[in-house]
Amino acid sequence: MQITKNIHALKIPFKVNISPDKIAERFVYVYIVCGKKIWLIDTGVAGSKKLIFDYIESIGKSICDIESIFLTHSHPDHVGSAKSIKQECGSKVYVHNLERNWVEDVDLQCAQRPVPGFKNLVEGSVKVDGVLKDGDIINLDENLSLRVIHTPGHSNGSVAYLIREEGSLLCGDAVLSSNQMPVFDDLAESINSVKKLDKINDVEILLSSWDDPRKGGQIHDVFEDSVNYFTKIQQAVNKIAAKENISDPAEFCKDIISELKLPPVMANPVTARTFQSVLKKIQSCKNCCCRN
Ligand SMILES: [Zn+2]
How far is CA 227 from the centre of its chain? Predict the structure, then answer.
């Protein structure tokens, strides 16, 4: 689907086997930026190459023109098909410095962040050609550039990309909307990152990995909703931590999912990790500012 003059969005559905009897239906957006060449923002899960290539050919472009892949971060649904696309098109791969290790060594990522079904979601490790940092500007075409905005929280090295010429903001997984599955490493940083994105002027369209495109006046509402949701999660963790036996992360997770009135399938190792990160912060916070 063409979104702006230069950007096309491709919604990629996939399934995650949470356990032998539980399957979660998910999707992720890949964005295809077209100019004289083609630049991908993320690559979807393993096997998305065909969908991406078919789409590019359907709009009369050539896959040989995929010059670079700009990753928002290293998680499986973003880096999943980078290996085969790079192999076939010779595209260069860019990611924030803090995500490099997990892109170049997916076994390390799986060991340190064991997402259910990881091996099925990622084709393999990929050599990174260049690392990014906050404020970098990458000139794609004469009138097309990407500005890198570091948005830690969902992961340490998550980034958003701003295409100033179009007012397009591609935010990866930085913005967590109400009732989406809570997945992040640091709640306070997540809130700061959303507020940082909200301060950028002249954003006309917000393109998230987990949400449909949002335009104009909707964009501030999306950011506000996200900050409120993060706060609600913090409060739910505080409440359950105060009254429950918190020695079992899986049970703790289940209780928070129930407190947040989210579907039970969202109680899984990924959200358990999220809530443990919040709990750890609460426990380590001497002056208890996290408890508000
Ligand atoms: Zn992610």
Answer: 16
